[in-house]
Amino acid sequence: MAKKDSEGGILDTIKTIFWALLIAGVFRTLFFQPFWIPSGSMKDTLLIGDFLFVNKMAYGYSRYSCPFSACPIPGRILFTPPQRGDVVVFRHPSKDVDFIKRLIGLPGDKIQMINGVLQINGKPVDMQPAGEFKEVMAPQGPQGLLPRCTNAPVGMGDTCVKERFTETLPNGVSHDILNITDSGPVDNTPVYTVPEGMYFFMGDNRDNSEDSRFPQSVGGLGFVPAENLIGRADRIMFSSAGRSLFYFWTWRPDRFFKAIN
C-alpha cells in the first residue's frame, strides 16, 4: 500500500508540474512576457536592471509570440498597428535575439538625423532642454557595462553626465532622450524611407544605441518587419542596479511599478 501511495504521489507531482508549465506557457504566449533590460540603449526611460512584462496582446500575434519562435502563425493575426512613440520589444531581423527600442518611423515615413536632431517627413521634432542625466561611473548590470559620458574622461566612482532633452513626436508623444555628441556616426544620416510593412526604431540614449539608423547591410538593425513585433512595454515591475537580483541594497524602489512613457 505504501508503494502505491508513493507512486501515486509521484504521479500527482508530475501532473502538477505539467499543468503549471502549460499554464505558464499559455500565459507567456498570449498575455505577458518577462523582459530584463541588459543594456543602456534606452536610458533614461529604461535603465540596466529594469524588469518588465511585455504586453503581447497589444499588436496581435506572430510566430515570435511563442518561445523559440514556435507558433505556426503565418504573418500576424489579430493585428493592431503600433503607435509612434511606443516602446516595443521585437525580434531582431537578422539575429536570434529580442531588442527593445522606441518606435519612431511608420510605413511610408521619411526619417533622418541632422546634427543630432530627429527629422520626420522633412520636419525637425520639438526638443526642449530637460537638465542633465547623472550616474556613477561604475560597471552596470550582470555584463558590467560602463556608461558613456559627455564629460569624458570620467574616473571610476565619479559622476558621468549626459545632456537630457524632452522630445515630442508629431502625434504628441513626449519622452526624454539623452545626448552625448552631435557629431557621432548616426547624428547625421541619409533619409530613410520606411517600406510598407516595416518600422523604424531608435534608442532613447541616442549616441549609445544599435538601432534602425544602422542598416542591415552593415550589420545593423535596419527596418523591422511587422511580423517581428512581440509586444509593448507598458510598466517597469522591478529594478535593480546590481550585478545580481540578490543584491537587495542595489534595488531601486522608486522604479517599482513605474509607467513607461
UniProtKB/TrEMBL annotation:
Membrane topology category: Single-pass type II membrane protein
Biological-process GO terms, alphabetical: signal peptide processing
Catalytic reaction annotation: Cleavage of hydrophobic, N-terminal signal or leader sequences from secreted and periplasmic proteins
Main location as per UniProt: membrane
Residue ranges constituting the Peptidase S26 domain according to the UniProt record: 11-237
Any GO MF annotation of the entry: serine-type endopeptidase activity
PROSITE patterns associated with the record: SPASE_I_2, SPASE_I_3
Family annotation (Pfam families): Peptidase_S26
Keyword annotations from UniProtKB, A to Z: Hydrolase, Membrane, Protease, Transmembrane, Transmembrane helix
EC number(s) stated in the UniProt entry for this protein: 3.4.21.89
Enzymatic class: hydrolase
SUPFAM superfamilies: LexA/Signal peptidase
InterPro entries for this protein: LexA/Signal_pep-like_sf (IPR036286), Pept_S26A_signal_pept_1 (IPR000223), Pept_S26A_signal_pept_1_CS (IPR019758), Pept_S26A_signal_pept_1_Lys-AS (IPR019757), Peptidase_S26 (IPR019533)
GO CC annotation terms, alphabetical: membrane
Catalytic residues in the record: 41, 101
PANTHER family assigned: CHLOROPLAST PROCESSING PEPTIDASE, SIGNAL PEPTIDASE I
Family the entry assigns: Belongs to the peptidase S26 family.
UniProt protein name: Signal peptidase I
Organism expressing this protein natively: Thioclava atlantica
